[in-house]
Every structure is written in C-alpha cells, then in structure tokens.
Design a protein that fits this description.
Number of helices: 9
Low-confidence stretches: 128-132
Oligomer: single chain
Mean pLDDT: 85
Number of strands: 6
Order of helices and strands: EHEEHEHEHEHHHHH
Distance between the termini: 32 Å
Largest sheet: 6 strands, parallel
Radius of gyration: 19 Å
C-alpha cells in the first residue's frame, strides 16, 4: 500500500519542519506544509489527512473548516487544549512529546473514521466534569450532563425525554437549568460553551 499522505499545518515554521521530519520517519508522505492562514489552498485530493500543530497559544482559527475536508490530527502543547481541538472537529489529539511513536497510528485511525486520543488525555476529555469549572458558578448534575450531550446531538426536548425516560416538561426544565448555569441564551450557545469548558465531547 502507498504511504498515507499528510498535510502539516502550524503557525511556527520550525514546528512544521520538526513535524515533517517525525511524520516522514514514521512512514507518512508529507505533501504540503502551510500556516493556518493558507489552509484554503490545501486541496482534499492532495492528502489523506492533516496534522495541525496548535502551538503554545492555541491557534485554532480555520481548524473547523479544514476538519470538514480532511481527517485532522491535533498536535497539542498542553493537555487543556484537547477539548477545544476535538470540539473544532479534530479526529485525534496527541501531545507533541508523544508524536514520534503515535502519529502514524493516529493518522491511520483518523483516516479510517475513528477517534484517537492520547491515553494521558482520555480522563479529562472523556469523563464529564461535574465539579465547578472556570466560568461555571454552579456545577452541572450528572443528569444535566446527560441532557446536555443529547442537546449537542440535536435532539428536541421531546426526543430527550423519550431517550432518558422522562417527560418532555422535565427535559425542558433540565435544558433551562443548563442554559442558566452556562450563562447561555440558546441551545447552540450552551453547546459551544460546554465544549469550550470540556463538559461534553462533540
């Protein structure tokens, strides 16, 4: 089989160059490098996936649009970037100090339609946070986290009620409580805020 083709995205040219060396050493074919401002020039036909070096400042502008076109692997500088990267559409999240041995498996998984998360990130990304988070005055209850996840999936109050075995009225009550706790004026705003806080996985 021919090697998987990879586009490397990152603000820092040195970080991109280092990622290229690691990718090629892992057996991937790097077809292009680009800063985030030039990703619109990257064609779907020239790569199987993209690796995005987030950088220390968490440069995510444009990530969602690229992730809609190519399976995307986020290369993180810190664990707290994982939630935002996955919320922006990445199919894999790797800490940059684990890239050498994990990039090829992560790219392969992403291309196959799977989600790959560095094991050290799994606890914080996959387990809902029930304790207060920055910007969250009152924690969500376990039931509210369940409802919020279903809201993120686009379910109506009626469908949420059917899924959880509660009445539509109770589902609406939970949704309103969630909006209040997140300081959101709409369901979509609540989902975006919850993703930023790492309360749900999109």
């Amino acid at each position: 089989m021919p090697p998987l083709r990879l586009v490397i995205v990152g603000q820092d040219p040195l970080a991109r160059a280092g990622l290229r060396v690691l990718a090629e050493a892992a057996g991937l074919q790097v077809t292009a490098e680009a800063p985030p401002t030039e990703i619109e020039d990257v064609g779907e036909d020239e790569a199987d996936a993209a690796a995005w070096d987030v950088g220390a400042r968490g440069a995510l502008d444009g990530m969602r649009s690229l992730a809609a076109r190519l399976p995307l692997i986020g290369i993180l500088w810190s664990e707290d970037q994982a939630g935002e990267v996955l919320a922006a559409g990445a199919r894999a999240a790797l800490l940059r100090d684990r890239v050498e041995e994990r990039l090829l498996p992560a790219v392969s998984a992403a291309v196959a339609g799977l989600v790959a998360i560095d094991e050290s990130l799994a606890e914080s990304v996959l387990r809902p946070r029930l304790a207060p988070s920055p910007g969250l005055a009152e924690p969500l209850t376990p039931r509210e986290v369940e409802v919020l996840q279903l809201v993120a999936e686009g379910l109506t109050n009626r469908r949420i009620g059917e899924r959880l075995g509660i009445s539509e009225h109770t589902a609406k009550f939970h949704v309103n409580a969630i909006l209040g706790k997140l300081g959101a004026s709409s369901r979509s705003e609540a989902v975006a805020q919850a993703a930023r806080l790492g309360l749900i996985l999109l």
